[in-house]
Amino acid sequence: MQARPSTSIADSSHADKIFARGEQLFKSGRYDSAMVYYEKASRLYEAAQNWEGYVRAGTYAAGTMRMLGPIDSSLAKLAQIEEIERVRLGEYHPAMTSLYDGFGIVYLNKGDYDQAISYFQKALAIWQAAAGGPKHDKIAAVLIKIGAMYSEKGRYDLALESFQRALVARKAVDPALKSWETGDLYFYFGNLHIHRAEYDLALEYYSKTMTIWKATRGEALRDFSTANLHHNLGLIYHHQGDYLRALELYQKSLVMCQEQFGERHFSIATRYQSMGNAYLEMGDYSKALEFHQKSLGVKLSLYGERHHHVAYSYGNLGIAHARKGDYEKAMRYYQKTLAIMKTALGRHHPDLAECYNLIGDVHLEKGEYGAALANYQRALQANAIDFANHAIGAKPTLQHVLSEAKLLESLHKKAKALTKRAAASSHAREDLQAALSTCQLAAQLIDQIRRGYKAEAAKFFLAEKTARVYEQAIQIAQALFLATRDPLYQEQAFMFAEKSRAGILLEALSEAEAKKFAGIPDSLLEKERQCRVDLAFYEKSWLGEEAKGKAADSAKVLWWQAKFFDLKRNYEALLARFEAG
Hints:
Elements: H1 7-27, H2 31-47, H3 51-68, H4 71-88, H5 96-110, H6 113-128, H7 136-152, H8 156-173, H9 180-195, H10 199-217, H11 224-239, H12 243-261, H13 266-281, H14 285-303, H15 308-324, H16 327-345, H17 350-365, H18 369-383, H19 404-423, H20 428-451, H21 459-484, H22 487-516, H23 522-546, H24 554-580
Helix pairs in contact: 1-2, 1-3, 2-3, 3-4, 3-5, 4-5, 5-6, 6-7, 7-8, 7-9, 8-9, 9-10, 9-11, 10-11, 11-12, 11-13, 12-13, 13-14, 13-15, 14-15, 15-16, 16-17, 17-18, 17-19, 18-19, 19-20, 19-21, 20-21, 21-22, 23-24
């Protein structure tokens, strides 16, 4: 007589099929139906005492609750599972990693990145200590999530470190770095470089991603990953001013997402937002408002009023109204944005700095110079984590800056506000001197960016910003000379003019250098590019730790210094090879 399969195996097999059906429904955006299947699979796994399956199904059910809202119901579901399974399986059982991932994603959607990182790190610790040795594929996947969280926090240095560690882990299971998952990792590298305004590097990584994905899955790619890639390529063209090309890519991505998810999905809100931004830059404010309202509607239906993604939509609506000249409406939206961001993002974040900049802009347009300057100063504080001085004459150091691009923008706006106040004030000289001092710091920041090994990658950003900074500084120095007849200010004006010309020359030299390296194998050029990226990372990490003063970890400082100088020697040797032909 043939033996019957055990109840546990039979029930688990059926549960697996139910669970798979839930996944299909979720991917198609049918969240209510997916919830039914996940809950049914969870009960079957529990009856079969398949606790790993139970955790997985429960975590996916919680993820579906997150999409259906409210988001706290998802958190409560995960907490309930954790309480039970910590007793059954223990805190460090591999099955718990899906639960920790679930917590991380929920906290991501709540805008609590620190909590998200703490849960992803729990999952990382489990995979690093797994029986039979580290699970490198799982480690890479978690490190990508951690890097994405640091990127959201504006800690691009830590994000880069996480992605680089993920690449090492990927190489352990994919030595040729040609798998779909490696393409996915390159996609995240590209995202990071967009955040850092390094658009040429972003394009390089996206090109690698698409090459790998086409090789592994063929030409007809219409999944969510491909939709995201098209969207982010659109972002690059957007930043470079090619708005029609950007809109074409956004629309293509939108259609892919609508095919997969319907209308009620965060990806739809993101595409509407990007299209609204493109129309805004094109000066079509009615279209911009239309698409930003669409984006806001989707986000409110998913997350409610107090989420940071909703804050971005309010900010975008404020920008559109400000461009139309309706400053009262703009300010109402900006204040909504600020209230949410301060809670969701904390005191230091590049996007918080941008919000203060926007509020300052409205006050500046209305001639309220004191209020404008106060907000530009708050923008500096939000972007420089070691700076908390409210005095308008106070300036941050350049040691712990979250976004150099946004800091330069804040400095430019602050100098502009000081100059305008000087024109309407009986104390013009003091304001002009403060404006000139602000321009001097902006010039130091430009030099810092240019000296960095990522300078070539930031050329689009630098070309756009530096000319106006130097022109502004020259005008202020000349105004001070006319007011005081002090030749020092003439010298200052000449110095800024020389810096402006030097910047143009540096761009020309960069082009000449590129031509000189023509004909060098792609593998060596890639090695040289990666050296520059790594040198920038090591230098920033070393200087950042050193800047903590007495709280600095001397072992870390020495380690970062050793890595930097070892790589610098290798980099210089590589350049010598290039020059020798």
